[in-house]
Amino acid sequence: MINKDELKLLRAALQKLEAGFVDLPDFEPEFDVVAVTNVLDEVAERMQDNYPYFHPQYVGQMLKPPHPVARIAYAMSLWINPNNHALDGGRASSAMEKECIVELGAMFGWQNPLGHLTGGGTMANLEALWVAGRLHPGKRVIASKQAHYTHGRISEVLGVPFSPVPVNTDGRMDVAEIETLLQQGDVGTVVVTIGNTGLGAVDALPEILELRVKYDFRIHADAAYGGYFGLASKLDHHTARAYENLSQVDSIVIDPHKHGLQPYGCGCILFKDKGVGAFYKHDSPFTYFSSAELHLGEISLECSRPGASAVALWATQRLLPLKKAGEFAGNLDLCLDAARDFHDRLAASKNFTPLMPPELDIVVYAVNASTTTAASERARRLFHTAAKHDLHLALIELPVTLAGFWLPNIKIDSETITCLRSVLMKPEHAQWTERIVALLEACAD
To answer: Of 291, 319, 347, which residue sits at a domain end?
Structure first.
């Protein structure tokens, strides 16, 4: 679980940090070492009550271990504890955040976009839809039925009408249904999901861009999960075309705390048009007393934000640059390889039937049974049985109108079916698929 070299590197980093403040009068904070030791022992015991998110046999939710450099940089920065809401609260970390934003924007073909880090994808999507609502007041937001549920919730918070769009059997938004809604004339924003969290499907961005020629609407790309895969070299043709066109959308959300190897929470919102920063304008009288230049607090709905997130992300992007054919991109390709191999192995199984081939690194599969009700019951039992064997999965409830297409041998006797879902987002998974499938088969027998 823990490489002891990380602790050595943290100590060395703290010594280097401390050297920058040697001119100050001596001061060392005091605390009760015995009491703290006792509490930390208790905390460590409590934290054992977790799934092993760091291990390759955890293939449940989207939980990817931070890179060691991110963990170390984040921890080291806590001795400063910068606040990136204002330059006065986090001078170095604010500069590092701005550099990170430039690099993230460049990954999508944007030069110096307006943007900042957030506590996660929900807050980032809130800002995107808030700006969209200011530009198209009163107009509807539409998103895939397989998009993250927060889009509907955020729209409700903002007082904006919202409509879900049906998906095809590939898990992508039905473009014909989008046009039907656009013809009503009250749609201001189309949310395009670049890797939905249930199925990993990437919406048909090129076709939606063609609709924008005929209709007036913003395109917001929710790439919270799949955003980094534009660096991969092994995407299929449809998926690659979507990423190639991301530079043409109006705003993008990406979560570095997913495939960006960062600790939670670290999301990011990017706007192509810097002019939308005017919507954030405020006149706070007290927090910016020595900052004459534009600061991150002037382009964010959040106030206090951890500078540690920016420090950790900056360190990671310095070690693993966001470029094609680099080490970071190569690890994404390994995740794609793992998901495809996992899907192929399940397709050859007598116990499981996979649904659509994975576009990214998410695989959804049914447990074979005579009916959809029986298949759902088997999936729920297997979920618990596998956990007893240290194999951790996830469950997903899907409409039979979607899943049934991939399950021609199962009799449909319910409106939904519970399937198993595995996220193979660790590069190491490419070497573990055989073992994981063997465990699945053993648990299914």
So the answer is: 319
Average of per-residue pLDDT across 68-79: 97
Q: Do residues 295 and 433 both lie within one domain? A: no
Please report which confidence band the pLDDT of residue 291 belongs to, taking 50, 70 and 90 as the band edges. very low
Provide the pLDDT for residue 287: 46
Alpha-carbon distance 143 to 166, whole Å?
9
| Residue 302 shares a structural domain with residue 334 | no
Which tokens hold the place of 345? 């192995």
- The whole-number pLDDT of residue 325 equals 93
Average pLDDT over residues 399-421: 96
Domain that holds residue 425: 327-444
The answer to whether residues 365 and 390 belong to one domain is yes
Confirm whether 286 is domain-assigned.
Answer: yes
CB-side exposure of 162: number of CA atoms within 13 Å? 20
d(CA 433, CA 202): 23
- How many domains does one find in the chain? 2
Residue 304 lies in a domain: yes
Answer whether residue 30 is part of any domain: no
SS (H, E, C) the chain: CCCCHHHHHHHHHHHHHHHHHCCCCCCCCCCCHHHHHHHHHHHHHHHCCCCCCCCCCECCCCCCCCCHHHHHHHHHHCCCCCECCCCCCCHHHHHHHHHHHHHHHHHCCCCCCEEEEECCHHHHHHHHHHHHHHHCCCCEEEEECCCCCHHHHHHHHHCCCEEEECECCCCCECHHHHHHHHCCCCEEEEEEEECCCCCCCECCHHHHHHHHHHCCCEEEEECCCCHHHHHCCCCCHHHHHHHHCHHHCCEEEECCCCCCCCCCCCEEEEECCHHHHHHHCCCCCCCCCCCCCCCHHHHCCCCCCEHHHHHHHHHHHHHCCCCCCCHHHHHHHHHHHHHHHHHHHHHCCCCEEECCCCCCCEEEEEECCCEHHHHHHHHHHHHHHHHHCCCECEEEEEEHHHHHHHCCCCECCCCEEEEEEEECCCHHHHHCHHHHHHHHHHHHC
pLDDT tens readout for residues 126-161: 999 999 999 999 999 999 999 999 999 999 999 999
Predicted local confidence at residue 431, as pLDDT: 98
